[in-house]
Specification:
globular, about 300 residues, about 0% helix, 6-stranded antiparallel sheet, 28 strands, single chain, 10-stranded antiparallel sheet
């Protein structure tokens, strides 16, 4: 019987295992010593709430599904009809194909063809690798079309909380600014991080609810930002990191609630190359010329000791 999420491709390094699926090329599971590091889903479940999905050619939302590029107007399908937005790109429900596979790494690919609201032709690849630093994910997008196209990338992993109450999770999110949004979750501008959303000094979430995009991130000596969730019961702290290709990250806590969550509880920490509605605002939007490629690397690392 074929799994709902398609083919299942697994990798292993020591006590760490991860599973990538054909549907969307997404990360379904990542465990270390049998403990869930990400809040995943079963092979015969749909990846609800974006769990482990890849978001291209844009992350987050486009207002009304409309944008203009190179003098042409486009209308995308409204995949978030309640708010009237086009959400999370065009590849998360595409079938991906296996390109290479060994014990600890694999590479999958997909082609994004022209379609309503999108004229581009992109060849896309994702490399997943387990190593001493945990799980690394490297996306690669190449414009195989004849015209320049807009492009943005995001990923949607959820860090598993297990039995940890949401209020007791200690968050460290090193960023100077946040994106302000309206009731449709669309940007109205950016500003210095407000006190209630300021986790530059690690502290418990308490009653704070986040669906917040952060930027002006603090980079370490390796050129990475790191967001860490700590004080997790019976499990290691977890760091999600991104390199300089990702000047934004989003933190989303609603699916970490102590009750009423449909599926495994987790907090999403989402590396992004640009914020919501970048196809209209132009903020950190990439313009991929014919033959041009973009890449970056982000990862998830359990923190022990």
């Amino acid at each position: 019987m074929r799994a709902v999420s398609g083919e299942q491709w697994s990798i292993r390094k020591g006590s760490a295992t991860a599973t990538v699926v054909e549907l969307g090329g997404g990360l379904r599971t990542y465990t270390v010593d049998g403990v869930d590091i990400v809040a995943g889903y079963g092979p015969d479940e749909v990846a609800r709430f974006g769990r482990g999905q890849q978001l291209m050619p844009w992350p987050n939302r486009i207002r009304d599904g409309r944008y203009s590029f190179a003098g042409k107007q486009y209308q995308l399908p409204l995949t978030e009809p309640a708010l009237g937005n086009a959400s999370h790109g065009l590849v998360r429900w595409l079938p991906w194909r296996l390109l290479s596979h060994d014990d600890s790494s694999l590479r999958v690919g997909a082609t994004l063809f022209p379609q309503p609201g999108w004229d581009g032709l992109l060849e896309l690849e994702l490399t997943y690798a387990l190593g001493d630093e945990g799980l690394k994910v490297t996306p690669l997008a190449t414009n195989r079309g004849a015209a320049t196209v807009p492009f943005g990338y995001g990923a949607h992993p959820y860090v598993a909380l297990g039995d940890t109450p949401l209020a007791q999770v200690v968050l460290h999110a090193p960023a100077q600014q946040e994106m302000l949004v309206d009731d449709r979750k669309l940007p109205t501008g950016s500003a210095e991080v407000r006190p209630e959303h300021d986790f530059r000094t690690p502290r418990e979430l308490g009653t704070v609810s986040l669906d917040t995009a952060y930027t002006q991130v603090d980079l370490d000596a390796a050129g990475r930002w790191e967001v860490t969730l700590a004080s997790l019961k019976d499990r290691p702290s977890v760091t999600v990191w991104g390199d300089e290709a990702f000047p934004w990250f989003q933190v989303f806590t609603d699916k970490g609630a102590d009750s009423g969550v449909d599926g495994a509880r987790g907090i999403a920490v989402e590396p992004m190359s640009c914020p919501a509605d970048a196809f209209n605002s132009g903020v950190d939007l990439l313009h991929l010329e014919p033959g041009q490629s973009w890449t970056g690397t982000w990862g998830i690392r359990p923190v022990t000791g």
